[in-house]
């Protein structure tokens, strides 16, 4: 996404990067077919406007959505991209699943080619050898890097709740880990993971990332493992708290809540209100851990109030916090419906555990159905996140084809 693609109104443009796993339809294990799947996407028309990329390991692929300014369009684009990628995977004998971790890992996956991937493998060694971990990243456009850093300061207390709402990685190695988001425990093995520090300016932020690179714990200043950051390449705030979520609707929910948080932060900054400080870094880390452990099914931690609170109540408080911003963009009712469904029916982790009554292959099959339940129609139309046909493939006007990369 080039800077010229950002709307004149900060906090309006939004895009989503979704990471997916490829699994064998017979065994349910992950399968290293990313190169073939992505080659197929390059040979076919992809009306969603998404771009598809390799990840660190050959069992993973990423879809980066087109930049959108309204949630209905983004929802259609997310569903369409999933449909396109799932269809390419099926043609290569694989199933596409959206899960924070692999329920059934296969043989040690090969690494993807590329100089930066090679540097990551060399630096982190065994930590990334089988790192089949997937997230859902949301970008929201802002005016400049100083604004991005100030916005991230405002987002910090809410990042554990975004994780709890998304939790979708209870399994690893074919067994239940006891956590709703095992992905977050895997990610905690990297230096500097978790809540980002509070920074007074972009200069201070960039000085810290350069220091980490100089210390040799990240491959370059563009790398960090914080759950939110100013994008190193784009004029956006990038929020990376969420697991890869099972449905396009839940990815849209993450986009709605994240954009609502950014717009709320921009309003607070315009009014001269500084961000609430998380007073104790250990309590902040505890909030991330509790979200990973329980998702929405137990207690969370209020990192500002430094107390235990039911996670569902924290999710409701998040919606209340961003409600004026969502009302402003016409998204409040839709977001309330999407969040209410997760609170009522459970997170992806809850769905995976219910499916596990039929064995781990049943988990993989259920994930594949939820990842892309609607095939591409005969005339090239796609099905949106509400199950309605969208004429993207028939030339319906949409957002700029500029993408997040």
UniProtKB/TrEMBL annotation:
Keywords: ATP-binding, Ligase, Nucleotide-binding
Mitochondrion is among the record's keywords: no
InterPro entries recorded: GCL_type2/YbdK_subfam (IPR050141), GCS2 (IPR006336), Gln_synth/guanido_kin_cat_dom (IPR014746), YbdK (IPR011793)
Region span, Disordered: 368-405
Catalysed reaction equations from the record: L-cysteine + L-glutamate + ATP = gamma-L-glutamyl-L-cysteine + ADP + phosphate + H(+)
Entry's EC annotation: 6.3.2.2
EC category: ligase
GO terms of molecular function: ligase activity
Biological role: ATP-dependent carboxylate-amine ligase which exhibits weak glutamate--cysteine ligase activity.
Protein family membership: Belongs to the glutamate--cysteine ligase type 2 family. YbdK subfamily.
Protein name, as recorded: Putative glutamate--cysteine ligase 2
């Amino acid at each position: 996404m080039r800077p010229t693609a950002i709307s004149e109104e900060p906090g309006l443009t939004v895009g989503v990067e979704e990471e997916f796993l490829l699994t064998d339809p017979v065994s349910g294990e992950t399968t290293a077919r990313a190169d073939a799947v992505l080659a197929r996407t390059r040979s076919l028309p992809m009306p969603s406007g998404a771009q598809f990329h390799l990840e660190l390991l050959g069992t993973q692929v990423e879809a980066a959505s087109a930049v959108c300014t309204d949630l209905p369009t983004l929802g259609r684009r997310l569903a369409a991209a999933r449909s396109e990628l799932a269809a390419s995977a099926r043609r290569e004998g694989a199933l596409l699943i959206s899960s924070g971790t692999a329920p059934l890992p296969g043989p040690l996956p090969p690494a993807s080619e590329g100089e930066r991937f090679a540097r990551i493998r060399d630096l982190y060694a065994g930590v990334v050898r089988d790192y089949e971990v997937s997230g859902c990243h949301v970008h929201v456009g802002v005016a400049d890097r100083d604004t991005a850093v100030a916005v991230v300061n405002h987002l910090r207390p809410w990042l554990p709740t975004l994780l709890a709402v998304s939790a979708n990685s209870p399994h690893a190695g074919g067994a239940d880990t006891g956590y709703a988001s095992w992905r977050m425990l895997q990610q905690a093995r990297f230096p500097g993971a978790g809540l980002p520090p509070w920074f007074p300016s972009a200069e201070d932020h960039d000085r810290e990332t350069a220091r980490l690179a100089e210390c040799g714990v990240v491959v370059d200043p563009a790398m960090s493992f914080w759950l939110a950051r100013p994008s190193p390449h784009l004029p956006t705030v990038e929020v990376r708290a969420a697991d890869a979520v099972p449905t396009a609707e839940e990815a849209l929910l993450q986009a709605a809540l994240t954009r609502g948080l950014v717009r709320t932060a921009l309003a607070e900054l315009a009014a001269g209100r500084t961000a609430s400080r998380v007073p104790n870094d250990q309590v902040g880390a505890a909030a991330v851990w509790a979200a990973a452990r329980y998702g929405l099914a137990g207690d969370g931690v209020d990192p500002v109030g430094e107390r235990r609170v039911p996670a569902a109540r924290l999710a409701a408080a998040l919606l209340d916090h961003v409600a004026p911003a969502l009302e402003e963009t016409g998204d409040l009712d839709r977001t309330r419906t999407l969040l209410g469904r997760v609170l009522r029916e459970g997170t992806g982790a809850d769905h995976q555990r219910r499916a596990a009554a039929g064995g781990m292959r049943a988990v993989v099959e259920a994930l594949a159905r939820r990842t892309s339940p609607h095939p591409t129609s005969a005339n090239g139309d796609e099905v949106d996140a509400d199950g309605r046909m969208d004429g993207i493939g028939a030339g319906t006007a949409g957002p700029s084809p500029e993408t997040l990369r």
